[in-house]
Amino acid sequence: MNTTTTTAPRRGSTLKIWTPEDKAFWEKEGEAIAKLNLWISVPALFLAFAVWQVWSVVAVSLPSLGFQYSTNQLFWLAAAPALSGATLRIFYSFMVPLVGGRRWTAISTASLLIPAIGIGIAVQDPSTPYPTMLILALLCGLGGGNFSSSMANISYFFPKDRKGSALGVNAGLGNLGVSVVQFLSPIVVTAGLLGVFGGDPQTITKGGAQVQVWMQNAAFIWVPWIVLASVAAWFGMNDVADAKASVAAQAAIFVQPHNWIMCVLYLGTFGSFIGFAAGFPLLIKSQFPTVNPLTYAWLGPLVGAVIRPFGGWLADKVGGGVVTMWNFLVMALAVLGVLYFLPKGASALALSIGPAEGNFTGFFLMFLLLFVTTGIGNGSTFRMIPIIFNQLALRQAGKDAAAQASAIKEGNVLGAAAVGFAGAFGAYGGFFIPKSYGTSIAATGGPEAALWVFAAFYLLCVVITWWCYGRRQASMPC
Questions:
Q1: Domains of the chain listed by start with CATH number
Q2: DSSP letters of 278-312?
């Protein structure tokens, strides 16, 4: 083996040689470096998700603070971060090969300070114009964009048989930011934790009594952690020299049908996860008015995030195509369960069976099952993408060692770009799902129409996954 491969690179610098498929290199130094980058990436991505989804909590609380916004405007505030985040992910998908994983992680994490500070200031004044709030909601998309670059970056560091687990850990623990922001926000707003730096409290009516809250804490609480994560990324992570590639080289994914197929499947898994998370509090409030949505809503994203690494691990063991196919079938059945337990309102699309007044316990458990399956599907689909592009590159390469090594490098670059782009495509679910609820309720009197569309889409994904990846004669078994 070339002796240069055994020289430990300086931390925080560019890794001139990075060959994780070389078992000797991996065991001697590669694994330790990869894990360090992973464990710095995780909290940075966690913070990105927290900032991205802070509006799912803040939007529910604005009316009690004196903001005169309509229900439709509140749904827009909850959905807007997903729209901008998904769009930014398209560009973030290509940034790691252009800028470097270390540099881009530090820069993109630091950018979260803009919406975090802005929201903390704006929510203290009920006269803040709605367009200002909408702009701040769109700026939270900076957190959503980070996912694509983070996943693309981590995919470079691990060998093929560890990618599913590594990407599952990065995304799963990062996704916890969604649950934590929904759980922690109602707690941190009850006290002036930041002292003179946190601003004055607001007075709201709760349970017939006047109480003070510091709603700005829901945003300000993340500021010091964003600073720490940015510094840790700059000084502790690495750039990979082999990860350098032009946009034109990465754009080869757009002529590959498997890229678009995986985008559709990831829309069904991650799009559902982030869309359900963004719309869950408002959906609970609209269908079960006597229930406090913030007491329960955080549990859904929690189980979805925690189970995601298991989805990647399971896909490593039995195959991503098989796991994803069965997972979509369970998702479709879970949606039918949600429909069963919804209150039977004026909508003609409501099931004719089930309790007329609905059942919140059953409704909530069915949504927990949905969140579990979105988490498993997130892990399994992201395991599939780098495997697919590595296989495509190897199939087209010669049999000699040099050609195979070059193919692996090309497959890693294209696989990382596809991981990022699929993340961008899938994130649009975070916009369409809450907006679908609002549109369905306005048009039919209930959310049933949106849920029927979701169930049909999941069944379509079952067929697509089986045909392309799950059956014995599939063109790309993975």
A1: 3-470 (1.20.1250.20)
A2: HHHHHHHHHH-TTS-HHHHTTHHHHHHHHHHHHHH
Cβ-Cβ contacts under 8 Å for 54 (sequence gap 6 or more): 115, 116, 119, 140, 181, 185, 218, 219, 222
| Phi, psi angle pair for 100, to nearest 5° | 110, 140
Q: Helix or strand or coil: residue 15?
A: strand
d(CA 239, CA 445): 52
The answer to whether 389 and 255 are in contact (CB under 8 A) is: no
Give the Cα separation of 46 and 67 in Å (integer): 29
Per-residue pLDDT of the chain (478 residues; tens, 9 = 90+): 444 444 444 444 788 888 888 889 998 888 999 999 999 999 999 999 999 989 888 888 888 888 888 877 887 888 889 889 988 988 887 888 888 889 999 999 999 999 999 999 998 888 999 999 999 999 999 998 898 889 889 988 988 778 777 887 888 788 888 888 888 888 888 876 776 566 777 777 666 677 787 888 889 999 999 999 999 999 999 988 877 766 777 788 888 999 999 999 999 998 999 899 888 888 898 889 888 887 888 899 889 988 988 888 898 888 899 999 999 999 999 999 999 999 887 666 777 677 878 899 999 999 999 999 999 998 899 889 988 988 888 887 777 777 877 787 788 788 878 887 888 888 888 888 988 888 888 888 889 999 999 999 999 999 999 999 988 888 888 8
Helix pair angle (101-110, 31-52), 10° resolution: 20
209 - beta bridge partners?
A: 206
